[in-house]
Write a structure and sequence with these properties.
alpha+beta; BirA Bifunctional Protein, domain 2; Rossmann fold; 2 domains; 8-stranded mixed β-sheet; 5-stranded mixed β-sheet; elongated; binds zinc ion; aminoacyl-trna synthetase
């Protein structure tokens, strides 16, 4: 127990952290390009927030939450997703008062008690955006474009954008009746979960993975076919904006987000070759969520995507992770009486923005050079007793094996220029 991590969690070791920097930096960079600002909310929230904000008929709330009682007898839950906390913060801090739209992004760990499998962990990481305060279909297209841009910058290929509209409270009730009329004669054939959904939330039957249910809903009336004029017009405009950006999409009438506050645009991004569950992100409009969580009638749209899934897709497509872990310079000492000068030089290199380190195990000169190669360091700056007395040091390029003498006073500048010119 003491030396094994909990099931469904992962350690990100130093040699793997480079790919996480790449994901996080790309997420921040793209978000800022589109005018989204970062928000950081707590890892845990009141359980009630997720019961209401994610929906108490959802799989997440029914089966997957890490809920605990704290010492003050409050029910708290490790956040299973990012939208509800961001909406809570939006309402709590009256962010709409700063002028709409409010465009936010988040990055961080989420927690779901699911069955661990490739790219699906119990502690996993999400990148998401939420935009509040506008019903403009251009904003829907922007949010989708931002997600696609993120994937593309990372080098992901073979992406498929699935797009649908799930209507609104004006057009859904009529569809709901049509759907129930269609399903009623075959109710017995639905899986037990969907039989339970039939009254509460029949739209979610489209989401069911059971082959029997999939078969039944294949011919079922879709909400897309019952859109009210407002929803139909909005959906049409979203498609026009996406086309204007050259973003290809597949219309997918079976793509639903089965909760009442989800409205209009729904989208999901798939990538080929990472197994049956090829979704690597999705989102949509939630014009009813802010009000459902106690705020004003403020519309919203966003997406969330799992970064472990993105890494898995990148690996499957043969993308090499960026190298990580070396330093620019290892300061090496030869002989006695040079330790203080070496330590000062180390500080000088670091102050100049050069990644630098030294040996701390009293290795021999040969041992230090081995250490420099293993680290790996690009260069070794060698301080010898005799040279130092002449105010000079040796600079050795470890890749080429070439070596030259440089004045001690000029060596920091020498290294900086090397670094700036890409070594
Ligand atoms: Zn509608
Ligand atoms: Zn089912």
């Amino acid at each position: 127990m003491l030396t094994s991590r909990p099931r469904g969690t992962e350690d990100i070791l130093p040699e793997e952290v480079g790919r996480w920097y790449l994901l996080e930096n790309t997420a921040r960079e793209v978000s800022r390009l589109y005018g989204y600002r970062e928000i950081r909310t707590p890892i845990f929230e009141h359980t009630e927030l997720f019961n209401r904000g994610v929906g108490d008929t959802s799989d997440i709330v029914e089966k997957e939450m890490y809920t605990f009682t704290d010492r003050g007898d409050r029910s708290l839950t490790l956040r299973p997703e990012g939208t509800a906390p961001v909406v809570r913060a939006f309402v709590e801090h009256s962010l709409e008062a700063r002028g709409l739209p409010v465009k936010l992004f988040y990055l961080g760990p989420m927690f779901r008690y699911g069955r661990p499998q490739a790219g699906r962990l119990r502690q996993f990481h999400q990148f998401g955006v939420e935009a509040f305060g506008s019903r403009d279909p251009a904003l829907d297209a922007e949010v989708i474009a931002l997600a696609m841009d993120f994937y593309t910058r990372l080098g992901l290929k073979d992406l498929e954008l699935h797009l649908n509209s799930v209507g609104c409270p004006a057009c859904r009730p009529a569809h709901r009746e049509k759907l129930k009329a269609y399903l009623r004669p075959r109710l017995e054939e639905l899986c037990p979960t969907c039989q339970g959904r039939f009254e509460r939330n029949p739209l979610r039957i489209f989401d069911c993975k059971s082959p029997a249910c999939q078969e039944i809903v294949r011919e079922a009336p879709t909400v897309t076919a019952s859109l009210c004029p407002d929803c139909a017009g909005h959906f049409h405009r979203v498609q026009e904006y996406l086309k204007a950006l050259g973003i290809e999409f597949i219309l997918d009438e079976h793509l639903v987000r089965g909760l009442d506050y989800y409205t209009k645009t729904a989208f999901e991004i798939m990538v080929k070759g990472i197994g049956a569950q090829s979704s690597i992100g999705g989102g949509g409009r939630y014009d009813g969520l802010v009000a459902a969580l106690g705020g004003k009638q403020v519309p919203g749209i966003g997406f969330g995507l799992g970064l472990e899934r993105v890494l898995l897709a990148l690996e499957t497509q043969g993308q090499e992770p960026p190298p990580e872990g070396g330093v620019d310079v290892l300061v090496v000492t030869a002989g006695t009486g040079v330790d203080l000068a070496a330590f000062r030089l180390l500080a000088g290199l670091r102050a100049a923005g050069i990644q630098a380190d030294k040996d701390y195990l009293e290795r021999s000169l040969k041992g230090q050079m081995k250490y420099a190669n293993r680290y790996p360091a690009r260069m070794a700056v060698i301080l010898g007793e005799e040279e130092l007395a002449r105010g000079r040091v040796s600079v050795r390029r470890l890749d080429a094996g070439s070596q030259e003498e440089v004045p001690l006073a000029a060596v920091v500048d020498y290294c900086r220029k090397m670094k700036e010119s890409g070594w």
